[in-house]
From TrEMBL:
Name by which UniProt lists this protein: Nitroreductase family deazaflavin-dependent oxidoreductase
Signal peptide: none
Database matches in Pfam families: F420H2_quin_red
Stated family: Belongs to the F420H(2)-dependent quinone reductase family.
Catalytic activity: oxidized coenzyme F420-(gamma-L-Glu)(n) + a quinol + H(+) = reduced coenzyme F420-(gamma-L-Glu)(n) + a quinone
Length: 150
């Protein structure tokens, strides 16, 4: 399935719990409630699920630089990459909601040089990412750059 054929408007959301509550508040208020989570900016990332060919939506902390959105695939320091990251490595075309704006983007893993710069930006924004990095070892937490298409 090509990402253009995905029903981006009806993604699968997280299981019931705080993440689902966050996503529902974000969507129902066009980001007015949910864009800032614990004082940090979040976006909603929809990826094409490799197994089901359905869009899957995930809330993530992000920073922005030169119009690009940067996120970390930390998975709270888990030993494996999160599902959404494995999805976007297979299908890099994604859908983002940032506040009230919704748009298509292309995802890619940061280069080592970009990683140095953006890791510091992300941990300045959310210091627990350093704890995630320590817990994830030997896994390197991917830093992902999302660039708007069009």
């Amino acid at each position: 399935m090509h990402a253009l054929d995905v029903d981006w408007d009806h993604p699968t959301d997280p299981r019931p719990g705080p993440r689902l509550d966050h996503v529902r508040a974000y969507v129902s208020t066009a980001g007015a409630d949910g864009h800032l989570w614990h004082g940090v900016p979040t976006l909603l990332l929809s990826t094409l699920d490799r197994a089901t060919d359905r869009a899957v939506r995930t809330p993530l902390i992000y920073c922005e630089d030169a119009g690009r959105h940067i996120v970390l695939a930390s998975a709270y320091g888990a030993p494996d990459h999160p599902h959404w990251y494995r999805n976007l490595t297979a299908h890099p075309e994604v859908r983002l909601q940032v506040g009230s704006a919704t748009f298509t983007a292309l995802a890619r893993t940061a280069t080592p040089q970009e990683r140095e710069v953006y890791w510091e930006m992300m941990t300045a924004l959310w210091p627990p990412f350093d704890d995630d990095r320590a817990a994830a070892r030997p896994r390197e937490i991917p830093l992902v750059i999302l660039e708007r298409v069009g």
